[in-house]
Amino acid sequence: MIDDRRVLIILPAWNEEEGLPSVLAEIQRQLPYVDTLVVDDGSTDNTSAVALAAGSAVARLPFNLGVGGAMRCGYRYAKLHGYDIAIQVDADGQHDPSYVPTLLAQLDEVDLVIGARFDGEGDYQVRGPRKWAMSLLSVVLSRIARTRLTDTTSGFRACNRPMIEFFARWYPVEYLGDTIESMVGAARLGFKVRQVPVAMRARTTGRPSASPFRAMVYLARAGLVLLLAMIRRMPEDLKAIAPGTPAYAASKQRAAQQLPVEA
């Protein structure tokens, strides 16, 4: 716990047995007050075993669903177990856990905090069509969220209890839905979003896809995801837990008083 709030770090992981032990060890060393949940996204290696050996809770999915499906599982776990804050961290070592307190400091004022790579911290860069897509997304989503956003596809993010309850009930699983559509959905219902600058590290496992063809495909798919996110109708029942509703206020009160949540 930190400031009387229960904190859970969710790590979606697909075949990450090689780098996961060091990532979990660093989290436990720097953030001894948090719990961790590794969501094994249908791995064919020993991801679950090494996570358990490192002392983390593990949820194992029978099939590979992608980051969106893994995070939906993680948010449901966080809701059912009464966590006040959930933080998404990649299992490949790119996200530096030393920035977690920076993200947490913003959650007194907003619902969702994004760790932004392109906000003056570090030297992470992208080029070509991928950069064009990210720039377009940043312009559009900044208008939707009514705040300056420079890294709308970052997977390093933290949210409060009302946002956990929202994502536990609705979280996109399609390609880029876990970043773009989830943020659009949250902003459309009135949840407050903010970014903080962070520096990203080189991944410890896996290889990034950086070919020109894949970058063009990324540009096209990102534009399609954004369009669908803006025109899709939000389920009516979700509006009942949006900011300004009694359910939102009750969720904030439970977090403040450490009251249990309903399953």
Low-pLDDT stretches: none
CATH top level class name? Alpha Beta
Question: How many DSSP-defined strands?
Answer: 7
Helix amount: 40-55%
Q: Proportion of β residues?
A: 5-15%
Mean of pLDDT: 87
Q: Distance between termini?
A: 21 Å
Q: If strands are numbered along the chain, what order do they take across the biggest sheet?
A: 3-2-1-4-6-5-7
Q: Fill in the CATH topology.
A: Spore Coat Polysaccharide Biosynthesis Protein SpsA, Chain A
Describe the biggest sheet?
7 strands, mixed
Task: Specify the CATH homologous superfamily.
Answer: Spore Coat Polysaccharide Biosynthesis Protein SpsA, Chain A
User: In CATH terms, what is the architecture?
Assistant: Alpha-Beta Complex
Provide a descriptive summary of the structure in words.
It is built from 9 helices and 7 strands, in the order βαβαβαβαβαβααβαα. The model has no long low-confidence stretch (mean pLDDT 87). A 7-stranded mixed β-sheet has the order 3-2-1-4-6-5-7, sandwiched between helices. Helix 3 (67-80) packs across helix 6, helix 5 packs parallel to helix 7 and helix 7 packs parallel to helix 8. By secondary structure, the protein is an alpha/beta fold. The protein starts with 6 loop residues before the first strand and ends in a 6-residue tail after the last helix. The chain is 41% helix and 14% strand.
